[in-house]
Amino acid sequence: MSEHDEGRRAFIVGAVGAGAAAGTALVPAAYARTHRARPADTPRAAGEAADPGHADPLDGHGVFFNDDQAATVAAFAERLMPRGVGLPGATDAGVLSYIDLALAGAYADQQDVYRRGLAQLDAFCRATFKAPFVKLGPSDQDDVILALEQGRAGGFDYPTAPAFFNILRTHTMEGMFADPAYGGNRDFAGWKLVGYPGVQLFYTAADMASTSAFTRAPVTGLQGQAKAGQSKPGSRKA
Predict the structure, then answer these.
(1) Model pLDDT for residues 51-100, shown as the tens digit of each residue
(2) CB 90 within 8 A of CB 73
């Protein structure tokens, strides 16, 4: 990982760490509605459109994004929050899943922003580099992201380039650090980065008196409990 990547990671982690964990406007009902599991013996047929009511659980996307859009968002988020040595990045934390679910639920009013923004991003990359964003190397991807942030990317009207950058950055941070119930922060990746203990049913007197880092794992939500139960020998899938 380059010094540039390390600096970006440090900035984002530091910004979130100051607030313990990022909050979101998503509601659990939106997650539950879009993540009813498709039966294991009925895989999606080739070319079959995603059904918002029966999305493959935690498959990364399929509720709102098509494959090309999903690949672009995943690549963009990974450059904003790149994987480090022994440290998770946006892909590891399931940021794409978070954004995809959000756009099918509580952030549905931003669907057109993403459709238009991603189309404009693709057009800019093709005009400048003769290739879509996902085909560019990390250095060129960073140049594109910086051009968006600074308003130097041509061809953007609505959303503007800086507005689209800010939306993607905000949603990437939410996907990294929000409660895993919303589809991101997989395996508490973001919380572990900032040392946030998550939900705890209680703190012992020793916990309160300790000056060492808190290490007990967050309380696993219903989604995590169900996933763990399905993985046990002899467990029955729904």
Answers:
(1) 433 334 344 567 899 999 999 999 999 999 998 888 899 999 999 999 99
(2) no
Question: Which two tokens mark 71?
Answer: 């690949």
Higher pLDDT, 195 or 82: 82
How wide is the angle at C-alpha 230 spanned by C-alphas 228 and 234, nearest 5°? 120
pLDDT tens profile 94-130: 999 999 999 999 999 999 999 999 999 999 999 999 9
User: 87 pairs with which residues across the strands?
Assistant: 84
Q: Is residue 217 over pLDDT 70? A: no
In angstroms and rounded to an integer, the radius of gyration of the C-alpha atoms of the chain is: 19
* Torsion angle of the four alpha carbons 116, 118, 123, 126, in this order, in degrees rounded to the nearest 10: -170
Which residue carries 């313990």 as its tokens?
A: 20
Domain residue spans of the chain: 20-198
The residue length of the chain stands at 238
Of the candidates 100, 102, 148, the one whose C-alpha atom is nearest the C-alpha of residue 124 is 148
Give the HSE-up count for residue 185: Cα atoms under 13 Å, Cβ half-sphere.
28
Q: How large is the angle between the packed helices 138-149 and 67-80, nearest 10 degrees?
A: 90
In terms of Cα–Cα distance, which of 107, 81, 48, 110 is closest to 193?
81
Rounded distance between C-alpha atoms, residue 183 and residue 78, angstroms: 16
Provide mean pLDDT across the span 170-175.
Answer: 96
